[in-house]
Amino acid sequence: MKQFLIIGAGRFGGSIATTLYNMGNDVLIIDDSEEAINQISGSVTHAIQGNAADERLISTIGANNFDVCVIAMGSDIQSSILVAIMLKEAGARYIVAKAQNELHAKVLYKVGVDKIVFPERDMGAKIAQSLVSSNIMDYIELSPEYSIVEITAIKEWIGKNLLELNMRAKYGINIMAIKKGASINISPTALTVIEEGDVLIVIGHNSDLKRLEKKV
Predict the structure, then answer these.
(1) Contact 89, 114 (CB under 8 A)
(2) Is 35 exposed, middle or buried (0-12, 13-18, 19+ CB in 10 A)?
(3) How confident is the prediction for the chain on average, in pLDDT?
(4) Cβ contacts of residue 35 below 8 Å, gap of 6+?
């Protein structure tokens, strides 16, 4: 279980927060809207109404105690940058921030944000999945039951071929393709050997993928 701080309870922040919480993580969300906090309070661990741009609030919650801090605020670019600076000064370990445009993203990177996301391109649930496991590179939900994920090869897979690994029997997943550096093998055979740094693109039932995530 990881600890997450989500700043902003709008559609984007709310989607990330509820997804992370439903995955069994500890989630604290902050928003200055009483209505937004009331709506999401039952779907996260803790919900606080307050202005995240208030330095006293940031210092009180202890940003350094969270594994990931997500700035999911709305269109107020100035506040977004200010909060990023305060989180960084408060010792936040890893900061993810929503950006409105490329210029906004550049400024956020300059003040120390680790990862930038664009809501128009990235769904909150997809980002939440990638935050939970460092081995899950990407996540696409095909339906409520099935998804496609990219997984960095773990140590025990390296040097073995797909026949030996028998992923379908062990994990209930099918390997669609394997990325090897800049190239991609879209039709791996049973004798394809997994090498260090390979990224496996797999499809499976969400319950099987969750069990695999715990493994990796």
Answers:
(1) no
(2) exposed
(3) 86
(4) none
